[in-house]
Amino acid sequence: MTNVNEPQIRIRGLYKIFGASPERVLPDVQKGMSKADVLSDLRHVVGLRDINIDMYAGKTTVIMGLSGSGKSTLIRHLNRLIEPTTGEILIDGQDVMKMGQAELRELRQTRMSMVFQKFALLPHRSVIDNAAMPLEVRGVDETERLNEARKWLARVGLEGFEASYPHELSGGMQQRVGIARALTSNSDIMLMDEAFSALDPLIRTDMQNLLLELQEELHKTIIFITHDLDEALKLADHLVILKDGEIVQQGEPQHILMHPEDPYIIDFISDINRARVLRARTVMKAGADGIPVAGDVDADDTLEHVIARSEGRTDQAFRVMRDGETVGVLTMTDVVRALVPADPSQERQAVAV
Amino acid sequence: MAQYDGVFNALGLREWCDADKVDGPMTMAQLLAKAQGTNPDEASGPLPFPSLDALHEACGRIPQTRDMTAGLERFFLDIKDNLKLVLDPITQPLSWMLDGALWLFTSIPWFVLIPMLIALTWFVSRSRPVTIFVALSFVFLGAIDHLEVAIQTLAIIFVCTGLCVLFGVPIGIAMSKNDRLQKGGIPVLDLLQTLPTFVYLIPLIFLFSVTESKLYGIAIILYAIVPVIRLTDLGIRLVDKDVIEAADAFGMTSRQKLFKVEIPLALPNIMAGVNQTIMMSLAMVVIASLVSAPGLGVLVLRGIRNLEIGVGLIAGLGIVLLAVMLDRASKAALARVDVSRSSR
Ligand SMILES: Nc1ncnc2c1ncn2[C@@H]1O[C@H](COP(=O)(O)OP(=O)(O)OP(=O)(O)O)[C@@H](O)[C@H]1O
Ligand SMILES: [Mg+2]
């Protein structure tokens, strides 16, 4: 393991341009020519523009954006399924772009695994053979790889389905196989491209909880892609918002919610249930002054939880605790105020100024 | 003189035309005209199409059409010896294989061979109705004394289809991996598929002696290999891109990808190609009886030549039976791989 304070993955100045001769177009794109102009005048598609992200070991980085914003393109650069036009990708300090064929294969086999939106299981293989595939590729012998696969299948709740074929399973179960396959590879980086987008809402929530549970225990470095804000907020330690191939804002999700920097993000967050995603620590006032409190809440409790505690009375206040220590005070007035985003039109003006 | 004289005169080519004028042998048209007592050189009648022959009349330098066919023939004769020097040793094993298979199939006693073939049917198809049908067909063919010829036809088909798969699948894989190869290969495949079956035999008769089995072996293989190649190429290109991406993401080598992902997923398509290949070799093996391929085709040929209608028709029925047997057995095999691998 590398130093925890050093990002495990660093992306620096990454550009991707699709088209006949990206190098020719690159200088114009770097000078700031818009995606629409590049498409109409130069007949190239700007996939990604000047991407810089640090991703920390053991954390979940969520990349969010609408369809066509370049999320899949970005995640495929990390294991070089797509070659960048220019830029640097450092993994544990090693530049992925400078790797040779063998090194790259080693990276994909042992240090990164991937979960796909459409599951991408091998249809002609049983569930356990699918889960064991990453080890098979590495040449691990059969009993060992099947044991490992069996263990992870059980961990994702698929005990007893080892001999089934993918087409006999529901979508949710197929994606569990996909996750088991990624876990079997025992790599510390997991790339997940809209892994839950093809599932219906209930199953989806199940899978998100499964992922959180696994993460609690395994501390993988997860890069998770989604176009769903609720999912992003639920999973993210670090949230990156992409639009038309550019990062519009990145940071701690709670911070982005309270301080959106772009009209695009304000629109994005305007219709989420804030009570469910905002946490006590985000809204509280630091330090404990003399306000009488009705009880204690945890720093990570959601406002929804706090409102339930207050039984709807707005004259109360709570002490906010973390690890047994007081970190601040949360008044119900602040809670109610935080539930309504400042009028979007005003906020937009504020941003524009 | 001829009707197109004016054209050459106008172009100022008269001298070039008449430079070394030698009167070649007369054409059929000239001979006919002479016999009828008219002068062929006289410009008369409606304007003929400016064909080589018509232009030749006006200008001696323009070759006649028969020069072209003769040239082609001479070309073949010229390269024949060199080509034979190369092709003969390469293709010799084919003769051995065909003769060997024919000898083997006809020398195994029927009470061993038939159960073996029925077992083989069961093994590939795992289908009770198909196996029973095949068994009954053999009994019927035996009862009408056509077993030996049918077995000969079958032996030839086994050898040729086996070789088609052996060469066709790798060629198809190569084509699926290389767009340029595919672009170049498709016209050749189209040509092989559209060439009338008899035309195959013409250059082959030139090269090899009619008594050699490889002559019909090559004809059958060239004709029947097309669907395996096409469908292997197609099958591999149609493999789900997401699955390929997953294989790449987990670091498979191209070799692992080919054998663990692409070929297994393309197998239903490849099998469909094999089925067509079998049917096409059966079609060709009948025609190949013209160049001494043994089997049911010989009887059909006898029916045509000697107007022995009964012989021809019964042999035809035998061919239909064989065709249905082979088709059902290979389709059942195809259905088997399809079901166990279906992603839907
Ligand atoms: N091979 C390619 N050639 C040309 N343009 C491409 C190619 N791949 C992606 N693009 C373009 O790059 C942009 C980003 O595509 P990408 O697939 O990364 O989007 P996405 O955010 O993953 O969208 P979705 O949510 O639909 O999966 C799109 O405008 C797309 O048209
Ligand atoms: Mg995508």
TrEMBL record, chain A:
Q: Which organism is it from?
A: Thalassococcus halodurans
Q: Which reaction does it catalyse?
A: a quaternary ammonium(out) + ATP + H2O = a quaternary ammonium(in) + ADP + phosphate + H(+)
User: What is the uppermost EC class here?
Assistant: translocase
Domain ABC transporter: where?
A: 33-269
Q: Which PROSITE patterns match?
A: ABC_TRANSPORTER_1, ABC_TRANSPORTER_2
For this protein, what is the EC number?
A: 7.6.2.9
Name the record gives this protein: Quaternary amine transport ATP-binding protein
Q: Report the InterPro entries cross-referenced here.
A: AAA+_ATPase, ABC_osmolyte_uptake_ATP-bind, ABC_transporter-like_ATP-bd, ABC_transporter-like_CS, Gly-betaine_transp_ATP-bd, P-loop_NTPase
UniProt keywords, alphabetically: ATP-binding, Cell inner membrane, Cell membrane, Membrane, Nucleotide-binding, Transport
Which Gene3D superfamilies does this one have? P-loop containing nucleotide triphosphate hydrolases
**Gene Ontology BP annotations:** amino acid transport; glycine betaine transport; response to osmotic stress
* Localization in the cell: Cell inner membrane
Annotated Gene Ontology cellular component terms: plasma membrane
By its UniProt entry, which Pfam families does this protein fall under? ABC_tran
How is the quaternary structure described?
The complex is probably composed of two ATP-binding proteins (TmoW), two transmembrane proteins (TmoV) and a solute-binding protein (TmoX).
TrEMBL record, chain B:
Q: Which GO terms describe its cellular component?
A: ATP-binding cassette (ABC) transporter complex
Q: Some GO term, biological process aspect, for this entry: which one?
A: choline transport
Which keywords annotate this record?
A: Cell membrane, Membrane, Transmembrane, Transmembrane helix, Transport
* GO MF annotation list: amine transmembrane transporter activity; carnitine transmembrane transporter activity
SUPFAM superfamilies named among the record's database cross-references: MetI-like
Where is the chain membrane-spanning? 101-123, 130-147, 153-176, 188-209, 215-232, 278-301, 307-326
Q: Does the keyword Transport apply?
A: yes
The membrane topology of this protein is: Multi-pass membrane protein
Has the keyword Membrane been applied to this entry? yes
- The organism's superkingdom is given as Bacteria
Q: Where in the cell is it found?
A: Cell membrane
Ranges for domain ABC transmembrane type-1: 150-330
* UniProt family annotation: Belongs to the binding-protein-dependent transport system permease family.
Put simply, this protein is called Glycine betaine/proline transport system permease protein
